[in-house]
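From the pipeline queue, job 12 of 40. The input is one protein chain; the requested action is below.

Action: predict structure.
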Amino acid sequence: MTDRPPLQPLLDDAVIVLQAPTQAWSGRDGSVGSAAIHGIYHGDVRHIAAIDLAVQGTALEPIGHASPTPQHVRFTDLLRGLDDAGADPKVRLDRDRTVRAGSFTESLRFSSHLDAALTADVTVRLRPDFAPMQQVKAGRDGEEEWSWDGERCRAGQASFALAAPHADVSVEGREILLAWRVDVPPRGSVELSWALDLDDPSLVVTSPPRLSAAHSPETGNDPRSARWLQRAAADLAALRLALPDHPDDAFYAAGAPWFFTLFGRDSIWAARLALGADTDIAASTLRVLARLQGTTVNPETAEAPGKIAHELRSAELALPGEGVLLPPLYYGTVDATPLWVCLLADAHEAGLPVAALRELLPALRAALGWMIEHGDASGSGFIDYADETGHGLANQGWKDSGDSIQWRDGRLAEGPIALSEVQGYAYEAAVRGAALLDHLGEPGGDELRDWAADLRRRFRDAYWVTTPEGRYPAIALDAHGAPVDSLTSNIGHLIGTGLLDAEEERACADLLVGESMASGYGVRTMSTGAAGYWPLSYHGGSVWTHDTAIAVHGMRRAGLTAHARRLAAELLDLAEGFDYRVPELHSGEPRVPGGRPVPYPAACRPQAWSAAAAVICADVLR
């Protein structure tokens, strides 16, 4: 019998505090080290893997925690070993944990209602780890060697400085030990604290110096919308990042814990969905991605002229067990380029000044050029993708897991793959890109409209399928041009792009709110009628909040108000079920009356495009 490989950490029962690019994960009792995800992270490195707090003479008995902001959490414990014989607890410990970009602080407040003073020895043991994030995600412990000079702990380029006022600090084996003696006066309190200043000069992202002036859309009569918006706005603020050479241009990091960096598709969709609350970040996201736009053909990085990047890291990203090795700047995304054009058009409609639009004209022309000249990599006549390296992403749409493109009978589709929603994005980008060129008095609009009209005509001939579940666009065309016939949430991304006519949009919307697709808490990624359906499959039956929100976004644009309101209401119920911090995805099993949504236990949270869904849903439901 072979040993079972390590498993990806589960996240659903953990507590996070964050301000990108720094985050700390713990148990609900404040403990750090009892679960694989626990630790203090800065960028793509876990600096501390465990924190062990001990108070001599008593156990720590947790009675609750509260996190009023993404950056702060308070854990409360009873210290009954130090208490008197009365029934009421009179000695407590409150641990306030705060994360800022590049720092971690914990204060320990001992409070007593006793008539006599008490004395206790307090120790905090820190276990430095310096494990790369990808190693943690693979469920493996860190094995990095570190050094301690009395003030700073180092491993390679990453390091942290430790401040612990009035503590005795020493190193014991693989741990740093902080020790205090506390004297708590009668009916009084004493506070201790320790802090880390985290540093990694290899980081390619930074925290922006200021926030843009976001505003809250009207939320109508349902107070839950206001609560979701408030929580989402705080999470989005905590997920803001910038690149060091242009720190004032913010974008949304994709999400915690694994994706504290720039992702083209994710950052674009988060900005689009949140546009009703924040127009500034749409403009800055466009500028950030334009600066990284491809200029040459490079199969190793999947770069091509005009192509928008997929992911930016400080080093190669290896996913153990998956055969994936991505370069630090990777362009393996088939949809980010047309989506960039769509976001530019959205930003223009929301008031982007003409001067700012003209500044992005070269990037606009390059992105449109990529769609027409490089997007059809296989000669299929549609925008498609195929990994040419053998170690890149096998699937390069938003459903990027290896088994996401399936036939209705469960077989995996053979690539190159031409995703249906990408053709919708490309059609919208061509039509709206042409309008932008017209607005600027630039040539090329007519050619783009002709290209879009031809794409629309050919899509109708190639993609539509009829199965026992109805008539709808296939998720993709495979290597042989055959339509992959599973019914999936991808059809929701087509609505509102203009690729479908009004009758076709309504047919797709009807399917999305039907029993096989609507779970009661959003749209399933795959229909229950497909052989590959499983409610806890990453892309084959689960529900992703942003995926449903994109359908809501398109339905509103298409005038399908009743459909949009129904799905937005389902997402609002979902938000309530997750205390208004909606995870990356959740189980697609049917809603049970009186029940709660079932987590996908490895889902990231907070996630930018899940949080941004609050804005579009509030707008639809007001």
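Job complete. Residues 420-439 form the longest helix (20 residues).
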